[in-house]
Amino acid sequence: METDVLDLARPELRSIIPYTPGVYEPGLIRMNANESPYRSSGDDTKRGLNRYPPPRPYALRACLASHYNIHEEEMLITRGSSEAIDVLIRAFCIAGKDSIVISPPTFDMYRLYAEIQNVKVIEIPLLRNESLSADFTLDTQMVINQINAGTKIVFICSPNNPTGGSTARKDIVKVCNAARGRALVVLDEAYQEFSAQEELRSLQEINDHVVSLRTLSKFVSLAGVRCGAVIGAKKLISFLENVLPPYTFPTPSIELVLKALDEDSMSVSKEKTCSILRERSRLKDELLKFSIVEKVWPSDANFLLVSTSNRERFVMAAKNGGILVRIFDNHESIKNCVRITIGSKNDNDQLLQALSNEFTKIPNKRQEK
Ligand SMILES: Cc1ncc(COP(=O)(O)O)c(C=O)c1O
Which end of the chain is least crowded, N or C, by CB within 10 Å? Predict the structure, then answer.
């Protein structure tokens, strides 16, 4: 039976009356938006910061859509993919009634935004395995069981933060099939560009209830402009446009991203990514030589998850050498671990030097695959 993804959304939002913004026509004086007629000092934007940004950054969307090779109407630009998580939960989950499924250890913002909306968070932990390449994998059957029990959104983070691995496409397909007509599947591909796995977009082409989240915070080196996107079916995106408030995406971010996405800058981003991938492999090999390092999981992202025999000593040694690494206190399965973002060659050398100052290296040390 044909199902409509919007039947899963909060019913009262389906008929919400969208905000009507004051029109903007280049060449006409704008006395319709209660803005200042004067530019502020230091304002070197094209549009002028005295003017509101466009209600929706459609020029930017056109450019990003062509970058991702999709139709413009299949994309909603958000302030980072974090805002995309928020808007999806608000649009689909009824407070105090609905639930989402997440598979920890994973990105903690799914939980946070759900709790802000008073939505229940059901945790289906990633499966553990002796073999590192099969460790921290999706518990597909348990996730599917939960969908049958009335969950509204399933989040699958692939490559996953903080474990670094990708979910097998066949498992994602199983979840998507089970969720059709019952739940929205959100594929968070924040780290896709660092992965050897292909993009998950084709899953959306056949499934209206599947969306993917992308971000410019990692690959395009633009975490500071806060640009992310939801990619999904046209009718779903047009529904989300009514839920996300207008004017949220600032003019400097629009202009900066447009500049960054021109062709030269994209090839620069690709070169930087290649260098991060090379450094990821080198850093992993070097880290494994230290006695304090027990395991380094395979990574499809711009970071490594490293298990240590003494997390506090590792963190302190890094800090003494001027480096901050990330720890996770709310996940039992990774409590001895640190997550290390791949830096520049110099950053990585500095970390390795800091570790050499404190820890011995074991010649010919190997880890299980
Ligand atoms: C898996 C994942 N998704 C989404 C985000 C949010 O990224 P942003 O809001 O910068 O686009 C992050 C940030 O680290 C992340 O790790």
Answer: N
How close is the Cα of 109 to the center of ligand 1, in Å?
8
Q: Residue 205: its pLDDT value, please?
A: 73
Domains and CATH numbers, the chain: 5-19+55-261 (3.40.640.10), 266-358 (3.90.1150.10)
- The answer, yes or no, to whether any atom of ligand 1 lies below 6 A from the CB of 107, is yes
CA of 198 to the centre of ligand 1 (A): 19
pTM tops 0.85, yes or no: yes
Q: How far, in Å, is the centroid of ligand 1 from the Cα of 160?
A: 10
| Digit-coded pLDDT (tens) for 120-161 | 999 999 999 999 999 999 999 999 999 987 899 999 999 999
Asked whether 160 lines ligand 1 (CB < 6 A), one says no
The span from the CA of 164 to the CA of 194, in Å, is 10
Q: Enumerate residues 6+ apart whose C-beta is below 8 A from 29.
A: none
Element (H, E) at 303: strand 303-308
| Residue segments in the chain with a per-residue pLDDT below the cut of 50 | none
CB 67 within 8 A of CB 227: no
Task: Tell me if 225 sits within 8 A of 253, measured CB to CB.
Answer: yes
* CB-based contact 297:288 (threshold 8 Å): no
Write the DSSP symbol of residue 118: T
